[in-house]
Amino acid sequence: MDNDLSKGNSLQVSHRHYIALPSSAQSRRTLHPLAFFQNQRLWPSCGSALCPPRQQVPPDPRLLLRRHHSLIPPPSPSASSCRCDPGPGCGRRGAGGFPVRSARMALALCLQVLCSLCGWLSLYASFCRLNRHRSYEWSCRLVTFTHGVLSIGLSAYIGFIDGPWPFTHPGSPNTPLQVHVLCLTLGYFIFDLGWCLYFQSEGALMLAHHTLSILGVIMALVLGESGTEVNAVLFGSEITNPLLQMRWFLRETGQYHSFTGDVVDFLFVALFTGVRIGVGAHLLFCEMVSPTPKWFVKVGGVAMYAVSWCFMLSIWRFAWKKSIKKYHSWRSRRNEERQLKYNGHLKTH
């Protein structure tokens, strides 16, 4: 770790981003981050599925840099010199600059969410124009399908490649890519919830799921942390969404009762059970035993997992009924073939 920090004036934050370190003159005036970590218990380093964390490597540079900044005390209000640039706002001294920075960050997040919402509305309007002979739900489900494919790709890249790994580092500070994806998803969730409320197309359970999703994304953006596990929940929730939309489109076009419909239903039930219930239980366990996330973040995770189980019960009930129906249909066809064969009326080629 000493060698990595002494090689240059930049610190690697992710695979493509570097942050400049203070010069030697500045480091003498401030406390070096290594002085704090010498007598502290380090957690395992952040990693991803392709580069899993190890016990003997330093922690994620994002966490290191955050603790380094926390060691630098803010300037006192009674400082004689102003640390901000000279200008009309130079009268704001000391800690007064931090609320201004927080307000700017909040405004930037709101603008990203607003742009995302406008983008999904524009895409919905475009689908409505292109599919005038179809219903409004057809266009809305096309938007849902688009968001599902896009969110699966982005969340998979964050979780499996960019890191950090959500099972070992829940509650980690949000990365810029996580913030962009969460803002993009929040805009879609707001659009979808508004559409469902306007057309009254969903029940109470789906509306509760949408509301919890919106609150969870907002909570991660406001806290500036826990984006890692929220991104993992997004991946697990959206991985079955394209299959669900394909099932609806097959029903609308009269192609559901076919081999394609059976494959879509099987993949949907298998992915929902394995990823959302199985992997989701492991993620919830890691979230609960970790001391890093806030308590209300853990409560939100329990609520989302409970909603997933409510969906799972209805899905298993549907799968059981369809399996019994398929079995009776196959048995009746087999009995008819036997009767034709025994009566001598079955044609052989």
Brief digest:
This protein is mostly helical.
Question: Would you write up a description of this structure?
Answer:
- This is TLC domain-containing protein 5 isoform X1.
- It comes from Castor canadensis.
- By secondary structure, the protein is mostly helical.
- It has a domain at 106-335.
- The chain is 68% helix and 2% strand.
- The chain is built from 12 helices and 2 strands, in the order αββααααααααααα.
- It has a two-stranded antiparallel ribbon.
- Helix 5 (97-130) packs across helix 7 (176-199).
- The radius of gyration is 27 Å and the shape is globular.
- The termini are far apart.
- The model is unreliable at 1-7, 24-45 and 65-96 (pLDDT under 50).
List keywords for this structure.
12 helices; TLC domain-containing protein 5 isoform X1; 349 residues; 68% helix; mainly alpha
Q: Helical region count? A: 12
User: Strand order across the biggest sheet?
Assistant: 1-2
- Mean pLDDT equals 77
Shape: globular
How large is the share of residues in beta strands? under 5%
Structural class: mainly alpha
List low-pLDDT spans.
1-7, 24-45, 65-96
Helix content bin: 55-70%
Our Rg estimate from Cα atoms comes to 27 Å
Largest pleated sheet: 2 strands, antiparallel
Protein name: TLC domain-containing protein 5 isoform X1
